[in-house]
Amino acid sequence: MENRRTDRLKPILLLLAAYGLAWIDLFLPQPPIALFSASWYAFSAAKSLLRFVFIAFLTKAWFGSGASGFSLSSLLPQAKDMANGILIAAAAIAVALLFALLALFSGARNPLLYPFGGGSRQPLSIFLMMFSSLGIGYSEELFFRFFAVKAFEKSGFSISGAVLASALLFGASHGSQGVFGMISAAILALLFSFFMMRGKSLHALALGHALYDFAILLAVT
């Protein structure tokens, strides 16, 4: 019985350790870089690239190459992935607009707006914003839609329970946006997970996530 309990707990501990290491910068002093400046986007893109490589390595080492959502034969997105990415982004934007309306009518602060301030739309900033969005899309989708779900399944969760637990973790990661922001992030995570369970590739999910982030950043900066 003790061994069984340990076997169920180990994947959760590994998941939390991986999360802490991948996003350790959230718990460290931030560099003196102006928020949403060109330097900030470049720094964000670099961090996301490192996260993606780290998570991809862990995913392959712990769960096998098939758990990462792509293989050597599909390293680059195909036309179908791009089309699905646009569909996923459109669905996410629709959900975000719904939350914006709820925030407006309830008098709550819109979690997509109040954390942002300043920024610019200079060509360099927009170019780096695109790479930052791609980095965030790929690193977060690989971790929360594949790695985390596999870890929860390994600990004994059903696929539905694993998806829900991963969505709650994703929502909690947006604590800087307040309770309303965490709830909206968790629901967006469930939306991305819906497409994952429908067989959409990591490329499609990451591109959809990136397009959504890029559209939001363009709207609020």
Give your account of this protein's structure.
- The chain is an all-alpha fold and 221 residues long.
- It is built from seven helices and no strands.
- It has helices at residues 2-22, 38-63, 79-106, 123-154, 159-172, 178-197, 202-220.
- It is globular, with a radius of gyration of 17 Å.
- The termini are far apart.
- The model has no long low-confidence stretch (mean pLDDT 87).
In percent, how helical is the residue content? over 70%
Number of strands: 0
Q: Using the alpha-carbon principal axes, give the shape.
A: globular
Mean pLDDT: 87
Residue runs with pLDDT of under 50 for 5 or more positions: none
**Major sheet characteristics:** none
Q: Give the helices and strands as they follow along the chain.
A: HHHHHHH
The Cα radius of gyration reads 17 Å
The share of residues in extended strands comes to under 5%
The helix count comes to 7
What is the subunit arrangement here?
single chain
